[in-house]
Amino acid sequence: MTLAQVLTTAQMRSAEQALFDAGTSVGDLMETAAGGAAEWIRRIAARRSVTVLCGPGNNGGDGYVIARRLREAGNAVSVIAPLAPATDAARAAKARWDGPVGTSGGSGGDIFVDCLFGSGLGRPLVPAHALLLRDLAAQARIKVAVDMPSGVASDTGAVLGEKLPAYDLTLALGAWKFAHWSLPGRALMGQMRLVPIGIGRVEGAAQLVGRPRLAAPAGDSHKYRRGLLAIIAGAMPGASLLAASAAQRAGAGYVKLLAPAADLRTPPEVVTDTAPLPDALADPRIAAVLVGPGLGRGEAAEEALAAALQGSCGLVIDADALMLLTPTMLIQERPILATPHDGELETLCRKFGIIAESRRDRALALAKVSGMVVLAKGPDTCVAAPDGRLALALPASSWLSVAGTGDVLAGIAASRMATGRDPFIAACEAVWLHGEAARRAGAAFTPSQLAERVSEALAAAL
After folding, report:
1. Residue 284 in this model has a pLDDT that exceeds 70
2. How far is the C-alpha of 209 from the C-alpha of 113, rounded, in Å?
3. How far is 381 from 21, CA to CA, in rounded Å?
4. Residue 184: is the preceding peptide bond cis (ω within 30°)?
5. How far apart are CA 236 and CA 319, in angstroms?
6. Residue of 305, 332, 340 whose CA lies nearest to 321
7. What is the pLDDT of residue 3?
8. Among 182, 189, 229, 337, which residue has the least CB neighbours within 10 Å?
9. What are the φ and ψ backbone dihedral angles of 459, each rounded to 5 degrees?
């Protein structure tokens, strides 16, 4: 699986410092970053006029370099800078621009380039700057943000102001930042492209979930070698059937329902084991267990969760089981993946004594305290591991916001664990497969239709 790194503001500064320590000057790095951005803008602008809004920091310095490069390419370029450069690199970049610089708005160009404030901004724009930004953006046919739209917090995606413009393109310089993949800021960014500047691998950086690299079963495979997944059925069997349907299409060789009685609605390809749950779970061939979808929250559900927690194979805990889970239940070391939505995550954080604001911070804290890998579901899905690893999901179809799609995700994740993946990798693969299945399902799909597309998503990763 190829994962691109996602950096905090502090990590980005450290990565840039490593380049400076290796001999790259601030000016040279600015020429590389802004030059790459200018090439994107040149292609978009063609021969149309461009207005570049420059701020006082190095993001503004990027703007002066972009303006110079576009002028050299033949574009009519105007520069607006409400504040004078405040860094040596920005002052040098302005000197190399050697052209007129306005301080207020006027007639803007066809293309608007926002270099007012970049990833370091942590407070709302002052009213005069916000008005200037909105006025220039409103006049343009195409709006481009360099590194980060002004007014969006880089580390959180928070929008620091009202009525900020929406952009057609955002050019991330050097590395992705958290805001590029976090709402509400992400919604303002339009298409996003990464401009490489030579940043190396950053230790401890978050990763962006990419397409998994999967393989067809080996020629001598059989159902148990590919992985036996046991799904514990509960009070609402439809949810476990959805999970089973997805799991059968996500790689496991054998998917078995553990239920107190056979159900005529169960498809013939899904085997039902009606033995007492502890006996059924004692099968040494079971590679992974899924508990939670449709489980209920009564006494029988509590007993089922307790039985599921007794084994040593991989375990996925979802839905109702998450609401029943308590810290004292996690007494046995084993690979566990928890898949909470926001409400379940809030409940778990309360039980485990965690206080954190964002989904990302809650997931990281819960993973560290509990020892579970946490797949925190939502518009900004993330996967957190106890050792601090963090993966951010690509934006997925908003049609996933329907009951039952979480059961499908749990089935995919449990299936990947049954094939031998550790919980973190299984979760990342499941997130990608789930999103790809949704893309292929189109609009207004049912959970069953989503599950049917999982095999197509898997084929796309081979």
Report:
1. yes
2. 29
3. 36
4. yes
5. 12
6. 305
7. 54
8. 189
9. -60, -35
φ, ψ (nearest 5 deg) of residue 255: -120, 125
Judging by DSSP bridges, how do beta strands 101-102 and 111-115 pair with one another?
A: unpaired
Residues 87-121 pLDDT 10s: 999 999 999 998 999 988 777 889 999 999 988 77
Compute the distance between CA of residue 162 and CA of residue 152 in angstroms, rounded to an integer. 11
Taken in order of first residue, the domains within the chain and their CATH numbers are 23-202 (3.40.50.10260), 223-460 (3.40.1190.20)
- Confidence band of 205 (pLDDT split at 50, 70, 90): very high
Q: What is the mean pLDDT of residues 394-401?
A: 95
Percentage of the chain exceeding pLDDT 90:
91
Contact 231, 255 (CB under 8 A): yes
Cα 363 to Cα 461: distance, rounded to the nearest angstrom: 27
How many Å apart are CA 82 and CA 95, to the nearest integer? 16
Tell me what pLDDT residue 1 has: 41
Q: What's the CA angle centered on 154, arms 348 and 200, to 5 degrees? A: 100
Q: Are strands 382-384 and 314-318 parallel, antiparallel or unpaired?
A: unpaired
Enumerate the β-bridge partners of residue 316.
290, 337
**Phi-psi category of residue 371: left, alpha or beta, with phi > 0 → left and psi -120 to 50 → alpha:** left
Q: What is the mean pLDDT of the chain?
A: 95
What was the pLDDT predicted at 2?
42
Q: How far apart are CA 230 and CA 460, in angstroms?
A: 26
**CA distances to 11, 19, 158 from 119, in Å:** 12, 18, 12
The pLDDT tens digits of the residues spanning 214-255 come to: 999 999 999 999 999 999 999 998 999 999 999 999 999 999
